[in-house]
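::Encoded backbone::
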Amino acid sequence: MEYSESPGRSRMAWADYVLVALVAGVIVFWRLGAVTLDDHECKLALAVRTMVTPSVWLIPSDKVRDIPADTPARHWLVPVENGRPRLGKTPLPYWAAAGVAEVQRAMGDDKPAVNSVTVRLPPAVSAVLCALVVLALGRRMFGQRAALLGALLLVTCVGFQKWGRNARPEMELCLLVTAAMAAFYFGIEANSRSSHLAWMVIFWVLLGLANLAKQFVPFLAAWPIVVYLFWRQSFLNRGDGTSLRWLRIFLIATAVGLAVQVIISLVPFLQWWRRVGISDDLGSYLMIAVAFGLPVLGYLAVSRPWRQILALLPTAVPGLVLAVAMFAWWLIYVRGLFPQLADEVFAHEVTDRGAGVAGWTVDTPDRYGVALLCYLLPWLGLVPGACAVALMRRFQQYRSGLVYLLLWCVGFVAIFSAMAGKREHYILPMLPAFCLLMGFVAEDVFFKHAWIGPTLARWLGAAYGATGLVAVAIAAIKYSTTRHDVRWLHMSIVAAVVSLPVVLGGWLMWRRRFHAGLALLLASMTLVYVAYYQRGELWDYNRPVAEFATSAARIIPPDAPVYNWGGSQTKIPFYFGRYVPTLQWYTAEHDEGSDTSNREAIAWLAEDPSRGPWIFGYGKDDSILLPLGYTSVLRAAGGEAKKKEVFALYHRSVETSPASAPASASQPR
């Protein structure tokens, strides 16, 4: 493969890395803890707090009747959320945040605090490191300028700041998958056998760590890697023209297979496996295998990549064993401790979710297209070029890197689109690759003009300049039509300030001063994030719930029993400061959420007036709890904008409690 320059050897390489780290750091670290943790972040935060607090661990339940001994090792190896084992995710993100808390202890805090900064710091650091890996990979593939543009486009896009500032494990997974994919590319393009072997070992180690961040997802990288090997062999054997034609045919066949699979999954009448007596999960996976397997087999037949595959076998077999061993031991360990619960959780989180059974439903097929466009804001003007550039004949000199990145993107999006349990953040690991493709396009659009003349760059600049003015108008209109909401006043000020560099950047581009214009646009996006999070609490929909829980902690005596009626948002126990077991889970013999478990919980409360003096619930629970002698002592409207629940704290004294109860009331274990 040929390259136009010797990437990574520029005397000013360090300046690029410093610039990218600085911009990324400002975006993800600025007021990192200003906004309250959301419900999913609190799941991780609760587990971390248990890890660093030796005095609390598990609570008995119907799924964990015999609690294992609480040893120091188990305390760290088993994430515990509000008294329950949290086995759905592998533990690396918990350990990273708990490590931050322990560093705080080592620096002088007797009791390590677990707060929003503690749990968000590892993803924020991961985001900065991910940007640096992208820069290094881009320099190897395309050279200095395209790599720098790709890294800066990544750190200033919406998806980067959204997940770089969130405690969930998505950004840590993104970093490790990106680093693994970069290591594989470095290894496959290495000039010496020793370098090749070293990079392959690093690749497998990173893949194992990625599975410790989120199990099995990183193995989806196998599809783009295998297909890339097919293309690589066909390129070496047949040249660029033929290999490019075969690649196009393969991608079209994959798109057709995916479309057929999604249609069959969405239309029950077409689900043939039900008519032949095959289970839904097996039938769904057979369809996925056919949709992706047939195009791969066809590509394998025409490309004959045996030399590429044989060259990797010496490291592939032991490397795969190593990668699996790095996370499978944990799955085996927790299954040994909680066999019934672990089997149910693993099946629900992995196989059932992918097949769309056991409560998971097939989602709309366009979920990831919309998510990708949102994540790539404000750089949507570069998206069409990024999708097409790898398949254009004129870029043969950079074909290897372009094809690798394209397959990386297509693989993650296509495979997750075939799965049933879709979540928009699943495709985050393809964002670095797509931004590098956009960086390659941006270099041509704004600097080289080898493919696209300067006219398009001028009009793109004009569009961004106009967008700055439109943003000011929209924010002002929202402020005037929402009864002078202070949130929109803040956004009006932000839009007015940011519009200045945006409009100036657009004007400079119109005058063909693309270097300065693009720099101003990148700077303006950084300013947007800084200005928004300067008053980010104005848009903090979770804060009322957190304040409600902290107020309850001041009302309820520290040693008083307290429960939650039904399923709760995990913000309640986290900000309340101690476990709040769900009453049905704590008292009932049947599955939580069933009518039987509700009746058993009511009977248990009614049997003894001293039981359950304090209960968290929702305003809608008045009809159940008020007849039992409870009164509502604290209420708060909260949750996300789409969740309008009214949170309530109920109290019952012995004097106001009913005196009778059904004889069949079950006792807590």
